[in-house]
């Protein structure tokens, strides 16, 4: 049980570094990541969304110390990520295939995040069986 918990913590820490790093970069440098010139309003919106991305990554990191009892928070964050991924998927259908990095984001949002959520639930259930009820 403890070994699996540690492995989950390490995996989430690494995967959450992606939104933390890209979100922070977007907040600081705006659209420079894409190389596209946009209006000031679009730049502002991009920085806002980057801030949300940064916040989501930081919130995933906040689950790490007691990941086995943070099921509710983990599920909410996963839901937000999946909704964002569905938005990206719709955009793919409407506007075409984005860059390799954006497709990578789509994979993390629609596959990796749900798998991590299922894994967290498994660890939480095992913890609850052994020590009592985990947060739902």
Automatic annotation (TrEMBL):
<dbReference type="Pfam" id="PF14248">
    <property type="entry name" value="DUF4345"/>
</dbReference>
<feature type="transmembrane region" description="Helical">
    <location>
        <begin position="12"/>
        <end position="33"/>
    </location>
</feature>
<dbReference type="InterPro" id="IPR025597">
    <property type="entry name" value="DUF4345"/>
</dbReference>
<protein>
    <recommendedName>
        <fullName>DUF4345 domain-containing protein</fullName>
    </recommendedName>
</protein>
<feature type="transmembrane region" description="Helical">
    <location>
        <begin position="100"/>
        <end position="119"/>
    </location>
</feature>
<keyword id="KW-0472">Membrane</keyword>
<keyword id="KW-0812">Transmembrane</keyword>
<feature type="transmembrane region" description="Helical">
    <location>
        <begin position="45"/>
        <end position="64"/>
    </location>
</feature>
<keyword id="KW-1133">Transmembrane helix</keyword>
<feature type="transmembrane region" description="Helical">
    <location>
        <begin position="76"/>
        <end position="94"/>
    </location>
</feature>
């Amino acid at each position: 049980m403890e070994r699996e918990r540690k492995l989950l913590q390490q995996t989430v820490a690494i995967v959450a570094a992606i939104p933390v790093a890209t979100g922070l970069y977007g907040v600081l440098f705006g659209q420079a990541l894409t190389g596209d010139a946009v209006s000031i309003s679009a730049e502002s919106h991009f920085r806002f969304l980057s801030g949300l991305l940064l916040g989501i990554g930081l919130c995933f990191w906040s689950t790490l110390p007691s990941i086995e009892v943070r099921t509710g928070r983990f599920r909410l964050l996963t839901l937000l990520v999946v909704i964002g991924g569905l938005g990206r998927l719709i955009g793919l259908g409407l506007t075409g295939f984005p860059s390799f990095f954006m497709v990578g984001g789509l994979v993390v949002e629609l596959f990796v995040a749900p798998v991590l959520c299922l894994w967290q639930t498994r660890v939480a259930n095992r913890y609850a069986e052994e020590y009592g009820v985990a947060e739902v």
